[in-house]
Amino acid sequence: MATGIILPFMGPRRTSITVPKLIRAFAAAVLLVLSATPARAAGPAAMATLVEGEAHLLRETGRFVLAPGVALQPGDLVETAANARLLRIEYTDGPVVDLGPASQAMIEARLGPSRREPAARLYLRQGWAKLGRAPSSRGVASLLTPDVALKGEGGSQVVQVAASRTQVFAESGKARLEARDKRNQDAVDLAAGRLFDSADWTERPRPDAAFVGAVPPSFLDPLPLRSARFKDRTVDAERVGDLRYEDVAGWLQAEPALRARVAERWRGLAKKPEFRAALAANIKRHPEWDRIVFPEKYTKPRPQPESSGARVAPTARPAPRDSAPTVTTPPPARSAY
Predict the structure, then answer these.
(1) For a tag site, which of 59, 74, 256, 278 has the least CB within 10 Å?
(2) φ, ψ for residue 196 (rounded to 5)?
């Protein structure tokens, strides 16, 4: 028998509440409080730890100056100027990415049909990137380009994206490369010292002189990790203005999966006249915005009420009544007198 706790109430009646009932009531109260408490935002995915030259962060609807120690969230866009030397990004679980000059990238890009699929550490839309990881890291260094999915297997890889072409040099370790836009293309397991070119989907025993000459000089020197310096510090990025169409045109006109994602994020920018006008002028390059810029095209017309001059159906006439029989009166008879 359950142990009862007798709680007196007003009046002659007494109510017995058992311990199990109290436990269930307490648990329900805790769940109610937890459900009313807003969930905390996820922690940062990475951090900008070294910035040599001009680099910017595009987040929500703003443009920010990147500085060492600024935390980066999944979906953040980062870019370096043409005269920048290096932007180092260190991830919380160990992978490290260096960006060279004139580079544009997305942090923790998730472009698959399912949001449950693991995100790539970086989507490199254009420019240079060098992948590596901390010595004790267990995190996987992965990267997407418009036509290649790369997964590093130790060591470091140098990647260049330019003119719809991806080149990958396995500086050390190995890398597995898969085609993103060709279903029947075989994957490539790139060994150390070899160069891969997506233009003809082939690998070469060594990089050519043109590739070696174009590699950013900052990629040639090993650099120490720096994230520990900012462990107990919070560095805020300085906002320098709102996003303009020209700031994000490359992302708005990128591959369909990216276009759909940024359309959701920047939907509110269509309320600005200048941004909206630029969207309308280039709508063929990003058709995902058509419904946002021209909502009247997708509004169903309301049914029109009937006109007052509508024809009225004729009313049926009542059937005529049967007429009384006609009685003919004979003329009076002529008298004989």
Answers:
(1) 256
(2) -115, 140
Nearest CA to 263 among 297, 292, 299? 292
User: Distance between CA atoms of 222 and 48, rounded to whole angstroms?
Assistant: 17
**Cβ 57 vs Cβ 231: under 8 Å:** no
Residue 192 neighbours by CB distance under 10 Å: 15
> Taking the CB of residue 58, how many other CB atoms lie within 10 A of it?
21
CB 107 within 8 A of CB 89: yes
CA distance 258 to 111: 7
Q: How far apart are the first and last CA of the chain?
A: 137
Amino acid (one-letter) located at 120: A
Please, what is the Cα angle at 62 between 290 and 85, to 5 degrees?
110
Show the tokens assigned to 155. Answer: 């060591």
CB 75 within 8 A of CB 107: yes
Backbone Cα Rg of the chain: 38
CA distance 87 to 298: 44
Q: Could you tell me how many residues make up the chain?
A: 337
pLDDT tens readout for residues 296-328: 999 888 777 766 555 555 555 655 555 445 544
Q: Two tokens at 170?
A: 């396995």
CA distance 195 to 330: 132
Tokens of 65: 């100056």
Instruction: Write the pLDDT tens digit of every residue in 36-65.
Output: 333 334 568 999 999 999 999 999 999 999
